[in-house]
Amino acid sequence: MRHLDLQVVDQALAWLRKGRRIWFCTVLATFGSSPREPGSMLVARGDGRHVGSLSGGCVEEDFLARLRDGEFDSGLQTLRYGDPEGPDGPRISLPCGGILDVLIEPMEPDAATLTHLEVMQATLLGRRPLARRVDLASGRLQFAEDGGLGPRVVQDRGARRVTLRIGPAARLILAGISPVAEACAEFARPLGFEVIVCDPREEVRAGFCVEGVEVQSVLPSIFIASGACHAATAVVALTHDPRIDDLAMIEAVRTPAFYIGVMGSQRTSAVRAERLRRSGGLGEEEMARIKMPIGLALGSKTPAEIALAVMADIVRVQRGRSRESL
C-alpha cells in the first residue's frame, strides 16, 4: 500500500512543475463520526482534478464545485462542513452526522512552494518526522523538528496557527512467523502499515502468505541491526522462541522505534526480563521500552484476538494516548 499522503504530495509537485496553480487541503478537525481523520490531505486543480480525500465523497463534490466557481481564489481559509448552525451547515450534511474542519491553501507554482512541498516529499520518503506549521493569519509556512507521535493536527487558536505532523509511512516489523504474527500482518495492512516479516526458517516461511507483506529470510535481529527501523517503526516478536524474540528485542531497543513488544505471559515475561538483563546486557532504561506482556489487556485467547490487542496497543502509542485514558 503506497502512503496516501505521498500520493497527494507527489501529484501536487507534478502539477506545480507544469506551472499549474493548486489548492492543498488538510482536514484540521473532526467532531462526531467522520470517514477521514485529522491530517488527511487532498490536492486539487482549478478544473476539479484531484488526488486524496477529505471524507467519503460528499465533501469533495461540494468543495470541487465551489473551487471551479472561484470561491477559494482569495487566499488561505478554513471551511467547516456538517455544522447545522454554521454558515455552510445547511449546504452539506455529512451522512455520518459528523462535523469537519478543512484548511484550504491556494499554492502558486513558484520556487518557494516547490521547495516547501519537496521538503514534505522528502520527509514522507525518509526516516525523520517533521512538523509543518501554518500561520492562519499570514499564510506563512515553516517546518520544525518533531518526535512524530501524538495527534496529527494541533491547533493553537489563540495564535491562529496549526501544526501538522508529517512523517514516513508507519512500519511494522514482525520478528518471526507465527499464527499471531500472521494475524497481525492481516490487521496492519488496512491500517496503513508497511509490514515486513523476518524469519530465517525456510519451512515456516513456506506456509506464510499475506498479500502485500515483505518477507525477509534472515534473523529479525540482523534485519533490525541493518538500519531498518525509523521513528515510525513498531517491532514486535510473537513466536515464543527466545532465540528469535530475545535477539530481536536486544537490537530493537538500540533503534528509534516508537513501539517494541514481545509476546508472553506475566511469568514468561518476568523470566525473559531477567534473561535480557543478564545475557543481553540491557539496562533499566532499555528494558522500560519493551512492552511485555505485549498488547492491551483484552482477555485475548485466540491468535486473532491477541493480534487485535497488539495492533490496538500500537495504534494507542502511535496516537499518543496513555492506557489510563482509554
UniProtKB/TrEMBL annotation:
Protein name (database record): Xanthine dehydrogenase accessory factor
InterPro entries: MoCofactor_Util/Proc, XdhC_CoxI, XdhC_Rossmann_dom
The XdhC Rossmann domain, residue ranges: 172-314
Natural source organism: Halomonas korlensis
Entry superkingdom: Bacteria
Domain XdhC- CoxI: 15-82
Gene3D superfamilies: NAD(P)-binding Rossmann-like Domain
A Pfam family it matches: XdhC_C
